[in-house]
C-alpha cells in the first residue's frame, strides 16, 4: 500500500510538471522564403526595442515586423557598399541600430535613415560596450594594428 501511494504521488507530480511547462507560453514559428525572407542563410539576429527583428545575411540587413520583410542592401541603400553582412550588431539606448561592416565602415539606422561613420575603416566588428554605453569596435585584417575603437 505504501508503494502504491508513493507511486501515485510521483505520477501526479510528473503530470503536474507537464501541465506547468514554462515553455508552453512560447510559440515556435518557422519563417523562410515562403513568407518573404530574402535569404536562406542568416548570420545573426537581434530584436530591437521597437519590436523589429533585424538579421544579417548574404543579401544585406533584413528587418522583420512579424508580417513582412524589408531588406537593406546595395540595391536600395547607398551607404551599404557590399551586401555580405555577417558581423554582430546592436542597439543603443536612444534606439539607434549600429552595424559595423566589412566594407561600409560603421552604419547607424534611426528613424528610417542610415548614416555612415568610420568610413575609412574596413572589417569592423562589434565587441561590446563600455560602462558608459559607448560602442567597442575592433578592426580585423592585415592592415590593422589590432586596436579597439571606442565610439560614442
Q: How widely separated are the two ends?
A: 71 Å
Low-pLDDT runs: none
CA radius of gyration is 22 Å
Q: Strands of the biggest beta sheet: in what spatial order?
A: 1-2-3-4
The total of helices stands at 1
> What level of helicity do the residues show?
10-25%
Largest sheet: 4 strands, antiparallel
Percent range for β-strand residues: 25-35%
The count of strands amounts to: 11
Describe the model:
By secondary structure, the chain is mainly beta. The chain contains 1 helix and 11 strands. It has one helix spanning 2-19; strands spanning 42-47, 53-57, 60-64, 69-72, 90-91, 97-100, 106-110, 113-117, 124-129, 135-139, 148-151. A 4-stranded antiparallel sheet has the order 1-2-3-4, with no helix packed on it. A 4-stranded antiparallel sheet has the order 5-6-7-8, with no helix packed on it. A hairpin with an 8-residue loop joins strand 10 and strand 11. The model has no long low-confidence stretch (mean pLDDT 83).
Task: Briefly say what this structure is.
The chain is mainly β.
Fold blueprint:
Layout: H1 2-19, E1 42-47, E2 53-57, E3 60-64, E4 69-72, E5 90-91, E6 97-100, E7 106-110, E8 113-117, E9 124-129, E10 135-139, E11 148-151
Features:
four-stranded antiparallel β-sheet; single chain; 1 helix; mainly beta; 12% helix; 152 residues
Amino acid at each position: 500500500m505504501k508503494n502504491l501511494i508513493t507511486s501515485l504521488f510521483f505520477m501526479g507530480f510528473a503530470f503536474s510538471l507537464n501541465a506547468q511547462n514554462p515553455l508552453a507560453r512560447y510559440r515556435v514559428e518557422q519563417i523562410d522564403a515562403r513568407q518573404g525572407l530574402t535569404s536562406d542563410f542568416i548570420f545573426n539576429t537581434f530584436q530591437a526595442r521597437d519590436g523589429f527583428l533585424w538579421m544579417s545575411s548574404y543579401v544585406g540587413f533584413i528587418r522583420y515586423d512579424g508580417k513582412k520583410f524589408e531588406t537593406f542592401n546595395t540595391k536600395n541603400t547607398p551607404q551599404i557598399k557590399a551586401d555580405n553582412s555577417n558581423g554582430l550588431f546592436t542597439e543603443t539606448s536612444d534606439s539607434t541600430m549600429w552595424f559595423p561592416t566589412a566594407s561600409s565602415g560603421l552604419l547607424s539606422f534611426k528613424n528610417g535613415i542610415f548614416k555612415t561613420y568610420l568610413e575609412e575603416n574596413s572589417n569592423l566588428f562589434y565587441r561590446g560596450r563600455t560602462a558608459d554605453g559607448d560602442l567597442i569596435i575592433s578592426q580585423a585584417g592585415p592592415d590593422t594594428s589590432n586596436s579597439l575603437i571606442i565610439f560614442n
